[in-house]
Structure formats: C-alpha cells, structure tokens
Amino acid sequence: MQDIFIESLLLKRIGVKHGFFTRNGGRSSDKFNSLNCKLNSSDKIENVKNNLAIATKCLNADLENLTLLKQIHSSRLIKANNTINQIEGDAIYTSKKGNVIGVVTADCVPILIWDNENKIAIAIHAGWRGALDGIIENSINEIKRNVKCQLYAAIGPCIRQNNYEVDEIFYELFLKESSLNKKFFKNSIVSNKFLFDLPKYCYEKLKKCDVNEVDDLGVDTYLEEKKFFSCRRAFHKGEKSFGCQLSMIKS
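Above: the chain's sequence. Below: its structure in token form.
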C-alpha cells in the first residue's frame, strides 16, 4: 500500500490512522489515471466511488463511515455525518470512533489534525481563499472551545512556492491582512509577479493557534506528475479537467 498513500511521521508516531493518498492504485483511466477522488469531474461516478472505497479500505474503514464535503473555498467547519458531497464546507471534525473524514485537493493544502486530549479528528481543505478567510482558525477554535486540547497537525502534498506564481492583486490581498505576510512571497522572474508560499502561510496559522506540533511533508503536487494531480499543472498544459487526490484521517 506504500505507493497508494503516504503518512506523516508525526501522526504515525502517536498512533493516528491517516493517509495522504497519491493518484495511484485506483480504477479511473485516461487523464484521471487512476485514484481520482473528485466527484464533480468528468470522470465516471462509479470510478470515483470505487476509488473512495479503495482508499477507505486502506485505513480499515468502510465507505459508509466516510464524510466528504462539497468544497467551496469557505471558512465553514462541519461535523461529520457520513455523507459524501452533499454539504458545503471546507473542514470536517469528528470524535466518533470508526468515522473517517477527508478532503480532496489538487494543489490546495490538505491539513489533518488530531486532538490527543479529546480524541477528535479534523480534516481541512485550505486553498488560498479559505486560508485567508480563516478556515484554519475557525476549525481549531471551535474544537478548543471550553476544553483543553493537545493538537498535532500534518500538512500534506500541495503546490509549493516555486510553482505558485501570483499577480500583484493577490499579493495586496494578503498584505491587507497583515504587512508581515510579505515574508510568504518572493519575486518571480516575471515583472509584477510573485511566488507565494501557501503551506508556510498555513503552517504559521497552525502555530498561532497553539498546535503543539506541525509536520509539513514538503511534497509538491505540481512537480510530481506521476504521483499527484495538480490544478495549475493541468491549466498550464491546456487540460480542461483534472482529478483530485484524497487526504483522510480516522477517529
């Protein structure tokens, strides 16, 4: 199963069942080859459902125990309810034993969090908009409300700074939040363009929320075409559609 998903050494060390899945080991074909977990794509629905079943089985779980949201780049946290692609939001939490929660990504940052004090799992889809709007803070603050927590987080495969070119309008949006956000940007070789470090931005937000330890796997979805889907790579290649990989954690 090692080529199907990768693990955070941090989460593995504390005994948390999880997986950042690659694009390998599934049933889809053509450009979705092969473990595409994106339902709202031109891939066949039965292929995606088979792929979700394969992934959940890797964590010794059943598909009926999985919750996935209809992701909208929001700051909404939803309690797991064992539905797939029915409720809008971008973060899920659960404390029910045997539940599996996940997010799908193709450059955005997947974050898996475990509260070792209260045995709560959180899965976050953090695109730039959701991260800027507070999806990380909203999720963690909701879990921390009135209780003591011991939080461990892992940042999975996502687009990395050298491949994430943005324009000046994007740059100014982040500086409007804080002038200190300049540190997450560096100049591109293209005039008036910048390279943005989204995972580092998310990492700092996790630390500001008093997460005890954060493990960034350091994997670039844009670079590793054989292992990961990438929205931006697909756009640069003129592809009209693309798949998504799944990141899951089991409570």
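Residues 45-58 form the longest helix (14 residues).
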